Amino acid sequence: MTLPQPLDFRPAKETHEDALFFAHGLNMACDGLLRFLFGSGFGEIFAQTCLVPGHSLSLEHVLIAELEGEPVAILSGMPVGAMADFSPVLRWAAGKQIWRVGLLALTALPLFKAMSQHNPNDWYLQALSVSEKMQGTGTGSRLLAIAEERAKSCGAHRITLDVSSNNTAALRLYLRMGYEQERISPRAFLSGGLQVHRLGKALPLQ
Fold first, then answer.
1. Cβ within 8 Å of residue 166, ≥6 positions away
2. What is the pTM of this model?
3. Fewer beta carbons within 10 angstroms: which end of the chain, N or C?
4. CB atoms closer than 10 angstroms to residue 123
5. Confidence band of 114 (pLDDT split at 50, 70, 90)
6. 194 bridge partner residues
């Protein structure tokens, strides 16, 4: 598929619209896990969370791709050393629902444990997602190249990411772009046997 117009890339703005678009992109990137944990209101909960600056889910780490002024894809990532705990803000945004979330999160505990392990010198690609109508246009590959340039500009020698075992299209993309599988999480049997693949790629020195 050929794009009718070139894509524009911009930092996310601190607006409800960008926050909500990022929340839905983040849910897509983690294979629907946010909707599973937080229910149909996950979008507003995560929109409120990412509008608060100073943590790993903040909009300051997000890049949005647009086609003719319409957001179509997101990229979120940062140096591991810049990652900051977002759980206090998320608990505030979720309110009383956080108790339900805590119980459901136990079913995916092996995945969360695997995703929390990082090398402090790496750059972590937290989320990359492309809207359905833009899939197959090379948008994902372009965003991935941008992520790698961002990582190199921060002085990182390696970029890492996590991807669900169910997301075979993303796995194929990352492997095609030179990423290698470093480890696989134990199965989360209470979440349908899901696993998370940790992939990494060495970056050339600047």
1. 31, 194
2. 0.91
3. C
4. 26
5. confident
6. 188
